[in-house]
Amino acid sequence: MEKLHHINGQFTRGASTETIAVDNPANGQIIGHVPLGTPEDIDTAVQAAKSAFDAWKRVSASEKAELLHEASRKMRAHAHELIELLTREEGKPLSENEEEVVWTYSTFDYYAELGRHSRGRVLPSTEDGVLNMVIKEPYGVVGCIVPWNYPLLLLAWKVAPALAAGNTVVIKPSEMTPLTALQLCEIAFDHLPPGVVNVVTGDGRTGEALVRHPDVPMIAFTGSLSTGQKIASIAAPMMKKTHFELGGKDAFVIADDADPELAARAVAYAALINAGQVCTSTERVYVPQRLATRFTDQLVDLVKSLRLGDGMDAETDIGPMIGDKYRQKVIDHIADAKAKGARVLTGGRAPDRPGYFHEPTVLVDVNHSMKIMTEETFGPAIPLMTYDSFDEAIRLANDSIYGLGACLYTSDAKKARRFFEDVKAGTIWINDPLTDNYAGPFGGMKYTGGGRELGEEGLDEFRETKHVHWDIEARPKPWWLPYHKEVRP
Ligand code: NAD
């Protein structure tokens, strides 16, 4: 399969001469090629988006809403092919990709309606005959840089609100999952005016050209902390608006009143969905001493029963990781933990088979001197640490540079309140880990970056605020110059 950049409504090779090979992480076989976008390709796409912007921002809110609903309808009609391509390109099981595609088209529906209703507000004026308005305006061309772990969902969380706000976009998908982004353009955006949605494929160099482009006033980025820091250092002197959704090291605390069996199921789901490659994956678990044995036994039994395999097989629970570099990090974190005294209760190995599989792994006797408890692992590893008091659990949960999400299992309302007030994270899940809500803002604190996607906040990220103060009567003001009395009118 060969796919080309999508620029100004056309599929084109642009100035690219080199290509990127895309493989299936379940077996390492090449499934497609895309062009390696050059700075010239980025410029062509930005100019197309810039030319389309003036007309797009003037499209009425109700017409824009219908156009976004139409994109959603087309995605729905082609959901099956998107789900299959996602599975072959990214690796997670079909059922998880089905959920990703539902979220993708529903995000377009959600922002179609939010954009229809929201433009700003009118303020109480300072005097009669004066109108004060707060107007929300688009930035212009927004650069959307997307990672590989949820290639369509994270694209939709940027592109849908950006378009609803009246921006045009240039998307740079991950070099590991560009095929689904281009497939989405083929399927869903051909009714939009040319130049409103553009995709330039490529790697970090292509992304950097987008960040550096002087006609791109906003960059919306989801990816690793190190890439986010690089983008921030380029964008800051240009005073660009940046929106960052970076790494995580989410804690899961089990309170001492919890049912260990239910909590073990919740932890297995939160830590192992998408082979642990979710920004909000549970990456560290804190269990009270009192429940440790029962909880650990339950969790180990459950994890042992999970089936590792190709995501195309409906019986698969856990698919491959995206690539060897990412798997090596998991191997390194487990080795570091073992060297410092941790024990592996199940898993712990990369099986000897094609593809980038890693066994789901449970570790105990871990502590915060280990990488597996402090750095983002982004793989199927569950380190369990015991605690003595709820105060200690909260302190441990907060002991991270990241602040994306945090989970708690409890029926004790006092503990729940203490947790959601004192844990520094953008999302707190209590008894229902990793469930999102279209209207619920999603994003992080601390080094995760302060951007918010979804909800009204997710639309506001893509709008600038302007205050209009208008004296409709155009009357002279008593406080104007000159102040000395002889010449005052
Ligand atoms: P990454 O930072 O390597 O790449 C992300 C994107 O940035 C890719 O499209 C890549 O080509 C591009 N890129 C790389 N270097 C660039 C540069 N110098 N300038 C501009 N663009 C550049 O991240 P990844 O490995 O694709 O994704 C995994 C990371 O994403 C994890 O750290 C994960 O936590 C994070 N993530 C965060 C969220 C969130 O909402 N907070 C969601 C999903 C993933």
From TrEMBL:
Signal peptide: none
Pfam families (alphabetical): Aldedh
Origin species: Candidatus Thermofonsia Clade 3 bacterium
Catalytic residue list: 245
A single GO molecular function term of this UniProt record: oxidoreductase activity, acting on the aldehyde or oxo group of donors, NAD or NADP as acceptor
Keywords recorded for this protein, A-Z: Oxidoreductase
Aldehyde dehydrogenase domain boundaries: 13-468
Species classification: Bacteria, Bacillati, Chloroflexota, Candidatus Thermofontia, Candidatus Thermofonsia Clade 3
Oxidoreductase as UniProt keyword: yes
Name of the featured protein: Aldehyde dehydrogenase
Family statement: Belongs to the aldehyde dehydrogenase family.
Matches recorded under InterPro entries: Ald_DH/histidinol_DH, Ald_DH_C, Ald_DH_CS_GLU, Ald_DH_N, Aldehyde_DH_dom
